[in-house]
Write a structure and sequence with these properties.
The chain is an alpha+beta fold. The chain has seven helices and four strands. It folds into four domains: about 5-55, no CATH class; about 60-95; about 95-190, 2-Layer Sandwich (Alpha-Beta Plaits), CATH 3.30.70; about 190-225. The longest helix is centred in the middle third of the chain and has 38 residues, at about 60-95. The chain is rod-shaped. The mean pLDDT is about 75.
């Protein structure tokens, strides 16, 4: 086969693709044009080979599956969150006028001379400056054998007026300075157990972060909003 430079232009135009490829591949190594074309062809072949490997790569397939899975998880999480809000709505409505009083001495124990829970609660209301508290109350949890408990069971107070609950919560800080018998008594909102569990998790995480050596001097608190 003749060298490409000796083939007239009109003959080159009439060459089939396979013939042209054969001519290119048989060019002499010292020909600069041939070396340049060969280099370009090799680079294209290498790039195509790399693309093929990436397309069939298991890592590429796994990444696509993981991306799709993350999208699906995000959708499911949003659905679950909305379902929780829907299911918890009745519970929040039931609890919106309730408070839980912690630290009130249990049965057979005195609080500033008071024996039964009704009188003990009246002692608390006196300190808070709250009058005419109307609502039913009961202890949460069962008693231990023998009728005594090492820890005071919480008292659930179901008020008739939501505004009165808010007033009690606002005045609860007075208990800290009311003497030894009352400083360990706390008044909290009655919240859903799942919410209470999540608050505990956040409080524990906050305490853990505050205790880290790398966080010395940092102000750390969790957002309750």
């Amino acid at each position: 086969m003749s060298e490409p430079k000796t083939i007239p232009r009109n003959q080159l135009e009439n060459l089939r693709k396979s013939e042209l490829i054969d001519i290119i591949l048989t060019m002499k190594d010292d020909d600069e044009g041939s070396a340049s074309i060969s280099k370009i062809l090799n680079e294209v072949i290498e790039e195509l080979d790399m693309i093929k490997k990436l397309v069939v790569s298991p890592v590429s397939v796994i990444n696509k599956k993981m991306d799709a899975l993350e999208v699906e998880i995000g959708k499911q999480a949003e659905i679950i969150f909305k379902q929780q809000l829907y299911l918890e709505a009745p519970y929040r409505k039931e609890r919106r006028a309730n408070v839980v009083i912690l630290g009130v001495p249990d049965e057979q124990e005195y609080l500033s001379g008071a024996v039964n829970d009704a009188d003990k609660l009246n002692k608390v209301w006196e300190i808070l400056g709250v009058n005419n508290v109307a609502g039913a109350h009961r202890r949460l949890g069962g008693t231990a054998q023998g009728g005594t408990n090492r820890r005071c069971r919480p008292i659930l107070l179901m008020l008739q007026d939501e505004s009165q609950r808010q007033h009690i919560l606002e005045q609860a800080k007075k208990l800290k300075n009311a003497g030894e018998a009352f400083k360990k008594i706390y008044v909290k909102k009655d919240i859903h157990p799942a919410v209470r569990k999540e608050w505990k998790r956040l409080h524990d995480a906050e305490r853990t972060e505050k205790e880290r050596a790398g966080n010395v001097g940092c102000v750390i608190h969790f957002n309750t909003r």
